[in-house]
Design goal:
Blueprint (H helix, E strand, L loop, with lengths): L6 E4 L5 H12 L3 E6 L2 H13 L4 E5 L5 H15 L4 E4 L14 H29 L2 E6 L11 H21 L4 E8 L5 H5 L2 H9 L9 H12 L10 E4 L9
Parallel strand pairs: 1-2, 1-4, 2-3, 4-5, 5-6, 6-7
Helix pairs in contact: 1-8, 3-4, 4-5
Length: 248
């Protein structure tokens, strides 16, 4: 069982949570498709994976662009025969109070986080249907429950939860499960660069008192990707140290 010999495409996987998720999957025998919009990042990550002896290819693609995504999925299919596991990890956040946000902030946040998940799922599910097997795992966020200064991001992540539930209903009889992982505060370079005042405010609302790691997210994705998780679909798995118990 597990994910051995499965083909896993992880968007935004040249760094951070996506890269660690891809590494864990590779360590467990999956064939990996690394994706990012920055060519240099893709090349570096693919080099690291190949040096470690993993089966991997790299695809530079903009998840907001259907043509780019279709080309990426075709390349994965040509190399590995299809796509078994899709992790919609690519994302960004434009934060700010409502009065300070721009239309551009809204559009790019919704496009990358939500439209990207939709387009990638649409493109990949055809290969999954052919095999009567698939795992789609969307990286949402605890923020879908709402948070001050997060109007675009919370809306996009709430949309991902809605997309997850809908696709879980739609694709269940095709052997495809669709689930969400909702991270909370995770130690990443972005966290390290944040102002101390912001860090202290966020940690004051953290029941566990500390941060999660990229391994925590990779572990959750691995669980949902496993062959033995076939009876779990349409669900949100919080990996947030209890942060989801609070609003705001």
């Amino acid at each position: 069982m597990g994910i051995e010999n499965r083909v896993a495409l992880i968007t935004g996987s040249a760094s951070g949570m996506g890269k660690q998720t891809a590494r864990r999957m590779a360590e467990n025998g999956a064939k990996i498709v690394i994706n990012d919009i920055v060519p240099e990042r893709v090349d570096e990550a693919v080099g690291e994976f190949r040096d470690a002896g993993f089966e991997v290819i790299g695809e530079v693609a903009d998840v907001c662009n259907k043509e780019s995504i279709d080309k990426m999925i075709k390349s994965a299919a040509d190399k590995f025969g299809g796509v078994d596991i899709l992790v919609n990890n690519a994302g960004l956040e434009k934060a700010g109070l409502l009065r300070n946000l721009t239309e551009k902030d809204w559009d790019i946040t919704l496009n990358v986080n939500l439209k990207g998940a939709f387009l990638c799922s649409q493109a990949a599910h055809h290969h999954m249907i052919e095999r009567n097997y698939g795992r789609i795992i969307n990286i949402a966020s605890r923020a879908w429950l709402g948070g001050p200064g997060q109007a675009p991001y919370s809306s996009a992540k709430a949309g991902m939860v809605g997309l997850t539930r809908t696709l879980g209903l739609e694709l269940g009889r095709k052997g495809i499960t669709v689930n969400c992982v909702a991270p909370g505060l995770i130690r990443t370079p972005l966290w390290d660069e944040a102002p101390e005042k912001m860090k202290n405010r966020l940690l004051s609302k953290q029941p566990s008192g500390g941060l999660g790691t990229v391994d925590d997210i990779a572990n959750a994705v691995m669980f949902l990707a496993d062959d033995e998780s076939s009876f779990i679909t349409g669900q949100v798995l919080y990996v947030c140290g209890g942060r989801s118990l609070y609003a705001g």
